[in-house]
Amino acid sequence: MMLHVSDIHAGYGQVEVLKGLTIEVNEKEVVSLLGANGAGKSTLLKVISGIINPRKGRVLFAGQELTYRKPDAIVKAGVSHVPEGRQIFAGLTVQQNLLLGAYVHGCKKPLVERLYGEVFDLFPILKQRFSARAGSLSGGEQQMLAIGRALMSEPKLLLLDEPSLGLAPLVVNQILDIVRALSAKSIPILLVEQNAAAALKVASRAYVMETGKIVSEGDVETLAGNDEIRRRYLGM
Hints:
Distance between the termini: 31 Å
CATH topology of the largest domain: Rossmann fold
CATH class of the largest domain: Alpha Beta
CATH architecture of the largest domain: 3-Layer(aba) Sandwich
Radius of gyration: 17 Å
Number of strands: 10
Order of helices and strands: EEEHEEHEHHHHEHEHEEHH
Number of domains: 2
Number of helices: 10
Strand order of the largest sheet: 6-7-8-3-9-10
């Protein structure tokens, strides 16, 4: 087991968003978190990556205790988070954005050059736009840059938050192909996605969230075949 999140309670101020939530991600698998806006999906990713401290519960990764550790220490442990909205540095170049992802390695040139090559294999357009300002990229290219920046840290687990948000269907399919390619490289992925149809195309298992709790879980075939789950939670 790569990730074990146990009995997590977390929120903002007096508002409790996560209410005793437990999930697992195993090696080499893509696990999707499904649910409507406000279910707590993004909050859970922020707890795992150290942006928010839980009020209760534990986060274990590859046998290490991540609970209450700082975000940079969590990245060094092998967990990279691609946030909702991409959050690239628009005024910096593609090269500079990618280089920021490699800071955990001390930006050693031979390693950085190798990582550039691996990112360009997945995203050839980033090589073409290497010197361009990130803010000049299309929405799909910016999402590729955000994922590429995360990959520059050589993650052992990737957290993807709404990678298809705001993208055209053709670009969504490209992003899904990238998720498949990363899975083929044996990088486990925890995928937050409102687009249930898209998520179920790439995940092997899924959790359905509602108001900070897990209301259903299982392999994608079981969930997709449950009429009530399809109607109430998957919008299908």
